[in-house]
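ARCHIVE CARD
Drawer: 12
Card no.: 0347
Subject: one protein chain, sequence and derived structure
Cross-reference: see card 0346
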Amino acid sequence: MTFRRAWPVLLSVVVLAVLSGLLQPRPAAASAEVVPGESLVYTNRVSKGDGTRTPDIISTSADNAVVVWREGLRPGSVDMGYMRYSYTTDGGDTWSRPRTLAQETDQYAWHYVILYQAGSTLYAYLGRTPIADATEPDGINNNGIPINGTFLKRSTDQGHTWQDAPLTVPAKDNLILSGRPLQRDNGEYVMPYWSSGRENGVLISSDLQTWRTGGHISGNELTAGENQIGFSQTPQDAAHPKNSLVMVARAKSAGAATSTSTDGGASWTPFTTDTALPSYNIARSYFANDSGGQYLYIYNAGSDSSNRDVLDYKTKRPGAAWSAAKPFADGPVSDNTDQPDGKGWDNYPMADEYAPGKFWVVWEFDTTRIKAKPLDISNTP
């Protein structure tokens, strides 16, 4: 082969090698950043705004999971950015290179994303916020409020690709879909939300795309918000157990705010506090049932909003008391972050059950990293 003919061949080989490297899954980092048992989904130490935050996860099996999160935009802005995602097919040993779920534009950015799985379809609910804000001195939105639109994307390939889908929700000021839907005995879905005025309630749907207003309660007295729901362990109607619901919300009190519904979410009792569920209004906790009815509560173990360094969890089987606190995550304080807040934070957990009593859990660390790991409560006393 002459040199003239060899150069194009060599160039083709180099290009293919580069492209292969770009497309291959990215190994989970094996460094001091990762506590044994944890998987590092993503790191960005130079993200703008309030950093790499508020993740969610859906796990379709022990090996397959997709994680979404919000990426900050610019210094001084919080609770707004663009949405990215990554997935694993090998139990968290490697994660795909991050892809964009919802990009910001010169007109708007994104406040939150919540995931749900129904059959083989995954749903991503997103809240949008405008870039411009005439009430700010610089005319720029710096806090992710108002939320002026709610949107939906769907995936039929375990979260590897996403497509826009139609969505109808009631008109509410600053509507935030704050937790996963549940499916009642009659087949309808109930999804928790909170909105302006500390209104905590649920939306109801038969198809996950057209939603109507269910019952709601005021969270003003306890500063309640970021509510999530589960099925009651003591249903009023044994023939229709999934009509009895429990709502848990973060609150300014030592214990979380709780409420119950016996009519599928059409009405709710006033909030009371449950001292077995620590809160202190620190951040959103994760609350859900496993498939056997056992409760799982993952929360910040601090006593004020500045102390977000430790995540603990508790469990409760039907008829039993809540367990003692058990450690979940306590990452080292990083000296690498450029974020003004968040050093050492383990914060904003979300989880998804992939087998009875077995969960994939995701959370933000240090406002620069997204972490995930399995949690098995199947043999919890």
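Annotation on reverse: Residues 14 and 306 are 50 Å apart (CA to CA). Residues 1-24, 29-33 have pLDDT under 50 and may be disordered.
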